[in-house]
Amino acid sequence: MIIRQIFNNNVIRAENQVGHEFVVIGNGLGFKKKNGQPVDEDKIEKTFVLKSDKIPQKLIDLMGETSVEYLTLADKIVGYAKREMGDIFSDNIYISLIDHIQFAISRYRKSVGLKNSLLWQIKKFYKREFMIGMNAVELIDSQFGIQMDEHEASFIAMHFVNARQDGQGMQQTVEITEVIDDIFNIVTNQYDITLDENSFNYSRFITHLQYFVQRMVSNEQEQTASGDNFLYDQVKDKYGKAFQCTQLINHYLEDKFESAMSIDEKVYLTIHIHRVTSRNEMQDTE
């Protein structure tokens, strides 16, 4: 491997013989070295494959200061997440995850556990991220002998929710989760049913809510209609109960964000509500 960029004494960017670049960590790898010189491979402790050419300075500093065992653990967790959900996370996941893991392990060693008030919502609306969190606490137990609970798994899951949604702030992730929960409760209360969480329509409904609410919280929702008022009228007439539910959700969003849904959003949400509730209603009448 050849040195392409020296970040500090312990962290460099290197290129292998076929032109692939890596971030390489090892004690003294960059000390008194220059770009173009060969990497002292005996000193390599950890190699990362990152997505971005512009690596955040905080991540570089963190890699230079953090114990390799924490970096290795974080890399295993991110690797599992990518296998389960694809390479959809920003490199910033390493920053938040390493920070969280170090603090969490320190807390648990002092017998200080925290409760996540959004545990139920995370398990319900972000099942794959919660699965990643559960895998993470198993890896922590295996590597450090510390048994963490599902509350800690849900905290880790939230970092992956955050990294998947363009690196938004954690507070915004919390707000989005709370709004999804409120909308979910409006639907289930209006229909007085329990939705089938294993159904394909449920999965599509939750995914739609995640992206729709993210746009609403970020104030990026589409306010202009497509001009297809015919479709709007058709959906309104054909799916009357679902449309009434959409109107209740719209009133809730107006009160919370002082911003109404567009005609297109009402159409899409009404269709999703009809689909996710129709099977349950048929089962309830059987």
From TrEMBL:
Q: Which UniProt keywords apply?
A: Repeat
Q: What positions does the domain PRD occupy?
A: 65-170, 171-283
The answer to keyword Repeat applying to this record is yes
Which InterPro entries does the UniProt record give? Answer: BglG_antiterminators (IPR050661), CAT_RNA-bd_dom (IPR004341), CAT_RNA-bd_dom_sf (IPR036650), PRD (IPR011608), PRD_sf (IPR036634)
Residues in coiled coil = none
Kindly indicate where the leader peptide sits in this chain.
none
**Which Gene3D superfamilies does the entry link to?**
CAT RNA-binding domain (2.30.24.10), PRD domain (1.10.1790.10)
* Pfam families tied to this protein: CAT_RBD, PRD
Keyword Translocase carried by entry: no
Which SMART domains does this chain map to? CAT_RBD
The UniProt entry, under NCBIfam families, shows: LicT
- Record-linked PANTHER family: CRYPTIC BETA-GLUCOSIDE BGL OPERON ANTITERMINATOR
Q: What is this protein called?
A: BglG family transcription antiterminator LicT
- The protein's organism comes out as Paenibacillus illinoisensis
What is the taxonomic lineage of the source species? Bacteria, Bacillati, Bacillota, Bacilli, Bacillales
